[in-house]
Here is the input.
Amino acid sequence: MKVLLWDIDGTLLNTDRAGVCAWMEAAEEIHGGPLDASRLTLAGMTDPLIAEITIDDLMERPGEYEIAPRLLARYLELLPDWLPRRGNGFVHRNVLDTLEALAPATDFEHALLTGNLEDGARQKLAHYGILDFFDWGAFADGLPLRRDIARRARSEAESRHGENVELYVIGDTPRDIDCGKAVGARTIAVATGGATFDELVEHDPWWALDHLPAAAEFAARLREG
Ligand SMILES: [Mg+2]
Here is the structure.
């Protein structure tokens, strides 16, 4: 079995910064004043880590992580308002075709490996109509480090399919490549989000792409091994 572990933001879809908008509204509400969003770089980061960085650097309240649960909870409350308000979001090229083409295949399984909290991940995927393609996922709830989310994904994949399961991590940043390698996955890097093609190549993924190829080419490359 080949388990495809998909990243969400920058890989499957682009929310037109709905996540950032919800995040900043939550942070400013709890902070009690405006904050500088331009100081926040989110690509490849996990939501729990973004909370810590927001508290340390944006709110300038270093180490006051007892605020984090409120911040994350408020973000999840605001996200469903922001997703439809940001009208230029989209599902990336060839993603829908690839999800559809491989869903019935008996040698592939779609799953998620994401820095999003599970609730936020579900909201984003449901808003863009692709939630039902995924059998399961490894999310960032309680796991600030992406490598730990990848470990959770490997453990779930092995419990479903045994130790010989083949993992493919598909993501848009060097952090996706790093976490995939940490769990012995083949890494597929797409330059559709947080990094350029050249930046991704520097991190030596198994396959680097400008964007996801057509479903048939994608499946053929993975089946040839
Ligand atoms: Mg991403």
